[in-house]
Request: fold
Amino acid sequence: MLTGLLIKNIKCLVQTEDVFRSKVCGNEMSELNTVTEAFLYIRDGFISDFGKMKDLKKGNILIDNPQVEIVDASGRLVFPSFCDSHTHLVYAGSREIEYTDKIRGLSYAEIAKRGGGILNSAKKLHETSKDELFNQSMTRINEIISLGTGAVEIKSGYGLNLEDELKILRVIRKIKDTCPIEVKATFLGAHAVPEEYKNRQEKYVDTVINEMIPVVASEELADYIDVFCDRGFFTVEDTERILMAGMKYGLTAKLHANELDYSGGIQTGVKYNALSVDHLECTGDEEIQALLGSETMATLLPGSAFFLGMPDPPVRKMINAGLPIALASDYNPGSSPSGNMKLIMSLGCIKLRMLPEEVINAVTINSAYAMGLSDTHGSIARGKVANVFITKEIPSYEFMPYAFGSDLIDTIILKGKIIK
Ligand code: NIG
Ligand code: FE
Reply:
């Protein structure tokens, strides 16, 4: 039997598309398509039609599908669900003690050097069973769903040995198989060098290449491959070796790049046709030139720069140069313990001085691109998956990033089903 959902009297339907775009670049980022006094018709989990209320032929919809459920969204806005293209949300426990160290003045790099940071999370993950890891992660998944996220990329990288990397990737797969949210998995074996490989970094890179990638690929546990290519972590040479090995198995790159230094990570990502390069606090003219004309999405993670008190990336320069920008949460226990994409929009506006239209494009259409979901997610377009949310009564779309601490999401619809 057909299922149908008609949302009527929508005050403003946000991020509509009549003509498909895979991403929005440069000055176009300050433009946002909307329909006021709108309807949205969802059929069998997909967006079937939308338009002005005055053009709604309700009779036709009822003939097409007599079972249609009707929701009145008077005074409220409808957005496509957020796409969060960079998270590490499968982790064990939390690291609020390091947070206190940070408040006392230790840097991210200093904490990592003292065996804290990623290695601390790897230790906790090792001691946690797969079921317990799944349960802890599901709490975060349910949290981000209620905050409006409809698609999420999740990285491994707290295993750092074959067995534990498989544990984390299998948990990601279980989330993919059981949750209504769209999930992409990224293998990040090269997130940090484990203690037992200290001063033998190339040997760990060998292990990632020879022991981990073949198994991860044969079990089809990952869509993408990532490397933390930065000062104090993995070099450009390490990164190139790992990306080449991953690409042999069909794994496309998504890189952690230029968070801590002008590391060459951005150029490496472009060279290997990465889907995205992420963080980018250290971006200069050369990096911008490398990105221009490439297919690689520049993805900024303002939650982590905010939490760590690090300098922000030169986003205005990047947009003026014509680049597309995506924003993601980086949800992880060390540098961004939040998956709240509405807050990420606010940080984009407040910290990066992006316009409301720019941040909305950055958390929908451009972040869908950064996780390989342009065809199906990231906008209100006929034929796309019906992942949308209805806001509470609010005056305008600008109010979403403006009211940075308020919960403004009322109804969540995933694959056409009202789930909250
Ligand atoms: O994206 N930069 C590297 N990795 C994470 C931090 C992970 C952690 O501290 O646990 C990030 O910020
Ligand atoms: Fe990250």
Observations:
- The radius of gyration is 21 Å.
